[in-house]
Amino acid sequence: SAVISQKPSRDICQRGTSLTIQCQVDSQVTMMFWYRQQPGQSLTLIATANQGSEATYESGFVIDKFPISRPNLTFSTLTVSNMSPEDSSIYLCSVAQSSYEQYFGPGTRLTVT
Amino acid sequence: AQKITQTQPGMFVQEKEAVTLDCTYDTSDQSYGLFWYKQPSSGEMIFLIYQGSYDEQNATEGRYSLNFQKARKSANLVISASQLGDSAMYFCAMRESWAGSYQLTFGKGTKLSVIP
User: Fold this and answer.
1) Cβ within 8 Å of residue B21, ≥6 positions away
2) Which of A34, A41, A42 to mutate to test the interface with B (most CBs of B within 10 A)?
3) Is the pLDDT of residue B1 over 70?
């Protein structure tokens, strides 16, 4: 299985600021995703990070709020922009090497005050 | 309608006993996949087991097995010989073929507590 790391592991941020989360994989992967897990809730897909092109966002998520980069097949970033307390969540990146394998990074626990 | 339904918000099981966590799904695809993940309090998502819609045998991985009943659209996770370390949230998820990009839809989860 792929080894996935995320930075930072947690952060406390002031409202109105932005935070960029990094996701690094130890091998090249085709599919990379970003999910959000609000407190006490399940995971919701934010977007699919496409290598070399714009991310594909799910309904309710927009590029201005959650810009995503994926410069190569092992790395992606998610920025949470103009944060509010409602953005307090765990943000997880995941990778799919095939239709039957999908692994998650350790997550970034974000608190917005 | 929800695509993944986990009807048990919380479950208790005695250590060393077996426990079944329920998951039903809704899809019109013929080709799909079902995943189970464990999420301890640390927040990481740990992959446990996968079942493909065309797999004839129920998936097994160590103490985890998946009771797949395609006609009933259910994919229940069975944990045998529960251990204290099994206490965690458990999520059922589905990958549908129409998505193309392997994205997953998650259920609301079941919190499992193992009692010594």
Assistant:
1) B6, B8, B11, B36, B76, B77, B78, B79, B90, B92, B110, B112
2) A42
3) no
B109 Ramachandran zone, left/alpha/beta (phi>0; psi -120 to 50): left
Residue of B nearest to A2 (CA): B47
Q: How far is CA A101 from the centre of its chain?
A: 18
Which of B44, B102, B106 comes nearest A42 by C-beta? Answer: B106
Residue B54 contacts residue B97 (beta carbons within 8 Å): no
- Mind listing the pLDDT tens digit for each residue in A45-102? 999 998 888 999 999 999 999 999 999 999 999 999 999 999 999 999 999 988 888 9
B95: nearest CA partner in chain A: A99
Q: What Å distances lie between residue B53 and B8, B61, B71, B78, B97, CA to CA?
A: 23, 17, 11, 18, 11
